[in-house]
Batch of 2 targets.
Target 1
Amino acid sequence: MSEAADLLLEFKDVDTYYGDLHVLKQVNYTIGRGEIVSLLGGNASGKSTTMKTIMGVVRPARGSVVFDGKPIERLATAERVRRGIAPVLEARRLFPRMTVFENLEMGAYTRKRGPEFEQDIERVYALFPRVKERHAQIAGTLSGGEQQMVAIGRALMARPRLICMDEPSMGLAPNFVEQVFATIQEINRQGTTIFMVEQNANMALTVAHRAYVLQTGQVVLSGTAEALRKNPSIREAYLGEMQVTV
Amino acid sequence: MSTFDLLLQQTINGLSLGAMYALLALGFTLVYGILELINFSHFNVFMVGSFVALWTLQALGISGQSVILTGLPLVGVLLAAFAVTMVFSGLLGVAIERISLRPLRNVKGPAAMITTIGVSYILFNIILLTVGADSKNFPNPLPTARFQIGGAILELREILIWVVSLVLMLGLYLFVQKSRLGKAMRATAQDPEAARMMGVEVDRVIITAFFLGSALAGAGGLIFGLYYNFTSFIIGFTAGLRAFTAAVLGGIGNVPGAMIGGVLIGLIETMGGQFIATAWTDVIIFSILVLVLVFKPTGLFGTLTPTKS
Ligand SMILES: Nc1ncnc2c1ncn2[C@@H]1O[C@H](COP(=O)(O)OP(=O)(O)OP(=O)(O)O)[C@@H](O)[C@H]1O
Ligand SMILES: [Mg+2]
């Protein structure tokens, strides 16, 4: 992973603020091409801020965000999307009064309509037959699980190289959570790199290759998923629930 | 005239006024939908639009009520007058956004709204000081063809107003529903941050909303002149407030709602004038505004208004 050519995304000493509030403090991440990397951490630790810093909705005060070998921290959000970064937003954030199909179209906003668009629609429909069934439904009336499928489908419509997911399992029933993670693995197998914020550390460390643990804006732990699963402080802080429920 | 004929006549009149209010209401709704901003400068973009229409007609050799055209020359003059007025008004709206509103984009509170009131007064005074306070005769090149419907009279210009308004509103509706930029407008209205992360350039969406809304206000200004045969620096406030009421009535932010709200306000105005008293028009219209705001703050079709966190 130290080979620069294998890196898709890199945070170099990134500091992000909201006004005076210092949220990300000298944060470093490296995401290799083809990896699934998970970002764990408690509430308000800066996970969503990490995602917003990647998408360019907030700009870092210091440090550099490097995508595909080039600094992107000064680029407009639209340009980042064009270069191949797509989000699956926290709480899904579909356009509630647009149809499912229109939401998918919005995912492909920076791309031309044409045969590739049709292929991508078919790919999403193949991954989520339920989305095809509901393509004409107003997105706000879908169930939470269905909305999550559309949110993931919408990200795929950008043909991204990197998908940034913010808590894809939030608010979903346990059996559906498994399905979402299986889908994430499938998307990754098809060649898309995934950076995924999760509260469900148990599941996240099962599907991810590596993970970072963020605490009040600082990376306090990182390593392979395997190693983190065995780490006693992780077991105590994030996997406690697993020991109770399993 | 029998009561039925009066009803019919006032329906005809109300639909014409309503079409004008609807065109004007769309500008409020488009901008509000995206910026949650009540754009009071819209009142006087409409007023300036009616003067641009007047000058365009004069430049085409149509002045007073004596020049009557038919056939192709008439179509050509009307197309040219609407096109010039709408493009000019649209660009005026874009200029207002660029110069006076964009610098305030991230300022919270009422600063932007107050600015639109200021811009409105600037436009008002520019026209007052350059054109003068007296009303100007607005030329009408249409032949005075009249059709008798029962006891009511339908004039050619009313048919023109309906057709033009319908075409413009249908065009806008299709643009918003079907075009790429129109979809980006709706997405931005529903969730601006998410839209941005899809790659939507929000500034372009805002410019589009101002251009389209202001162009429609310009068309409304031309229709005002054709309907009343005059224009004046003062016309923006009454028509603007009524159109704003129409937008609120239909659920501000909601495009079809603004169209229906506009027509309703037009009908309420003419029916109230006929069956109650013209002097009470504003009392009736604004009582309706207050009642709607009290009992259904999101408007008649309010489920479609923007909801933002
Ligand atoms: N737009 C904003 N303006 C000001 N402060 C913000 C903003 N967004 C987030 N914050 C603050 O930044 C800190 C980090 O927020 P962030 O959303 O990144 O947390 P998180 O790790 O995603 O938490 P959660 O697990 O609850 O989603 C919080 O204290 C939050 O209140
Ligand atoms: Mg979060």
Note: Chain A is about 40% helix and 25% strand.
Target 2
Amino acid sequence: MTILLDVRDLAVDIPTEDGTVHAVQHVSFAVNEGEFFGVVGESGSGKSVMVQSIMGLVPGARTSGSVLFRDRDLLSLAPEQLRSVRGREISMIFQDPLSSLHPQYTVGWQIVEQIQAHEKVSTKAAKARAIDLLDRVRIPDAAARFDAYPHQFSGGMRQRVMIAMGLSLGPALIIADEPTTALDSTVQAQILDLLGEMRSEFGTTVLMISHDLGVLSRVADRVMVMYGGRRMELGAADAVLCGPAHPYTAGLLRSSSFNREPGTPLVPIGGRPPSLLAPPEGCAFRDRCPDAMSICGTKPPVRHYDDGTEVACWLESTPVEPDPPVLPPPSLLASPDDPIVKVDGLRLTFPQRRGEPRVVLDDISLEVRRGETLGLVGESGCGKTTLARAIAGLVAPTAGTVEFDGAPTGNLDRAQWRDLRRRVQLVFQDPFGSLNPRRRVGSIIGDPFRIHRLASGAERQAKVQELMELVGLNPEHYNRFPSQFSGGQRQRIGIARALALNPELVILDEPVSALDVSIQAQVLNLLDELQRRLGLTYLFISHDLAVVRHVCDRIAVMEGGRIVELGTADEVWNDPQQPFTRRLLAAAAPEIPREPRDRRLLPLSVAGAGQQPVSGHPADRHAADRIAVEVAS
Amino acid sequence: MTRFILSRIAFGVLVLFLLSVFVFMLFYVSPSDPARIIAGDKATEELMAQIRANLGLDRPITEQYVTFIGNLLQGDLGYSYRSSMPVSELVVSRIPVTMSLVFGGMVFWLAIGIPIGIVSAKHPGSVRDRLGQGFAIVGISFPTFVLGMLALYLLYFVPTKLGFMLFPPSGYVPFEQSPLQWAWHLLLPWLTLALVVAAVYARLTRGQMLEVLGQDYIRTARAKGVDERRVTYVHAFRSAMPPLVTQLGIDIGLMLGGVIVIEQVFGLLGVGSLAVTSVAMQDRPVVIAIVLLGGVFVVVSNLVVDTTYALLDSRVRTATR
Ligand SMILES: Nc1ncnc2c1ncn2[C@@H]1O[C@H](COP(=O)(O)OP(=O)(O)OP(=O)(O)O)[C@@H](O)[C@H]1O
Ligand code: SF4
Ligand SMILES: [Mg+2]
């Protein structure tokens, strides 16, 4: 095995108005040729900054350390040399395939541009190659779609285009930053399969970032766990994921809903990640760690196990299993006789320019029982959000009726309408699009108080900061703008805003799909707790059956504007009746088995000299010295 | 696309119709008497009645308006009360001056404003950025006539005192007569106009570019190995363009109706200076003609902007295909 990418002691500092963000702090790892290397960590742990700074893509960043790639240090290359590496030897695939493609150029043009940026080929030849690539990532009718614009493609197809573009020059390394996070779970599975296939076909090495342990457990050979800009654990994927040695990794696995029995509360990691402006002296995870000891106030050493796992932690035994949080008893038991929402024969069509009107919702009848959580699963475009909006009274049905709390939502006067707006709240799925980039976060979250004239001035600020605390945001960031938050942090802003007025029915449209697991668990538990305490009713929309199974009492499966299956969570999960439900099940993340490991922790002094070659820096003869330095510093 | 353009044209015609009614009404309710203006202070009441009858001013307003529109559609805008020249001839003779001023100035303000905006946005907070910003503030806050006078003083008056003529102080030479003289005479007005307007474009360009440069697809372009120049111009500026086109359309449309201050300062007999004299002298037919002309320019430039906008945006373009 040879090393393709050798990152040593990489540190990235980004100067900002508030001070310097120490986004990556002395991280070392090596990616072997041909392997699938996964990086996992919470939002804001510095994963994206790390991989982007490797390619010199973070404007204004100061880097130190070295990134060796094929005998060159990428951090000290001249701009022109770095440019020739980008896209030709190392490609990147980004999280959001819509915003990552230029909206004003055709997809074909964008692939041709990449080819011509590095090779002197005629446009005709480049076009032929681009069509071939589109064909290989299975874009149907590639030649005709060459001239299509990104907005004419679905999310999954756009990501295929990004992959085709990434592969266009046969790079040695593909860096994929959350390539499937923005996609439906069935499409996610397809894209992952495609990446795997392309890896064997092109012999490419893949470095993939994900916050989803389930995804990584399927595809990764080795995994690195990051936290607060630092490396926590590194090792073979099954060693790290099935038998975590670091308390943080163990915590991540405990808070994953796909990994816990339905009904059992998740065990979130309490608190929130450390500030990267002033990183803590000792272990970055210390104030959230159930195993924390007094020695953890000093920087933990990198410990080595004889199976190659490396862990930055003082702990010498298996991490403890804290008890799940005790939730209050439900204040309201859902019963079939007390529906809060009654939908009967709902049909919704949109007129089209020519021909038949488009049927979006087709003869839907269902009840939402007061106090329950009803899950609504289906792929994007199947009408989930439209149904939710119809229930909230935001779109008028073409036929059929919607009743809220016994009263039809058809003709409401102004006061009733306002009242309905307060009693029914929506949480939207798009953390990027639903926040005005020019407004401060505090004032965005304070909107409901302002609109309904409930609190102002210092009182409003106090309430907003309480909400920020509740959803795991730092209340000190009251005056920040949405762009200064990482993807996951932005989603929490939207949730805080919806919870502000203690509504009765909350429609949660993919509320946690953009969050990483420890925060997912916090939010899911928080939602659960609020429901029990306040007797809230939830309509929970998601494409991810694993999450839905965990949180919902009943599940409705939607396909093409119809409800094809409706039953209790257990029935749907264990005994699916429809082929579509089975497909969804197959795409859901598998449970990761817990396996006790038979391995030995190497003593600190001999660790470097002993069992090195399995992971870390196999070819590095000076490993022992470096470990000594790491311990000392 | 055709449907889109046709509907915009129909809308434009409607706007012009409403505008014509509006100016007509405005003059009808104004207290001044055209007969008095034409005949002078010492005219007899009899003569004035005669003039009113000749002009049709004694008839009901609706009838007057219908006659006016009927004539207008045949290209007849009536006669100037002052010079007795046909209004259409009078106004048309002024258009080339204003057009030369505006389009020539446009070349300069775009050539100055856009590069400043781009450089500022590429290096936000740098010395170059601050210089560019300072330039914008000066351009925006200085009154046009001050800049014009300053230009005249520095580039005409001072050189003349030193014994040579760098630029002529005023006047207009038609392009057909001598392109060189045309440009030489217009250079100072162009530069003055450009200095005033370029500041707006520098700011707009900077703001747009800053926003676009932060977009994910710009990062993608860099990650692809596209060189920085291409990232700036082909990727970023391409997306920053539509708002600039809109602003340009609005500015051109408004200015073609007369660039009053600059025309006055440099003694250019364009539409703007005609407007000033006509308003001062209550020359009603000329003022109506100029207002309508300005309306036509605004409507046409809006049409051009909307069409260009649609052509520039792949989303609009493909939706109407
Ligand atoms: N351009 C920037 N300027 C200032 N701070 C930044 C910038 N980009 C990222 N950060 C900060 O750096 C830290 C790491 O961000 P990064 O995007 O790498 O996190 P991540 O691990 O990729 O998170 P996610 O899972 O949400 O994508 C965060 O605190 C973030 O706020
Ligand atoms: S070093 Fe201490 S605080 Fe940090 S993870 Fe290990 S046990 Fe927990
Ligand atoms: Mg990221």
Note: DSSP finds 14 helices and no strands in chain B.
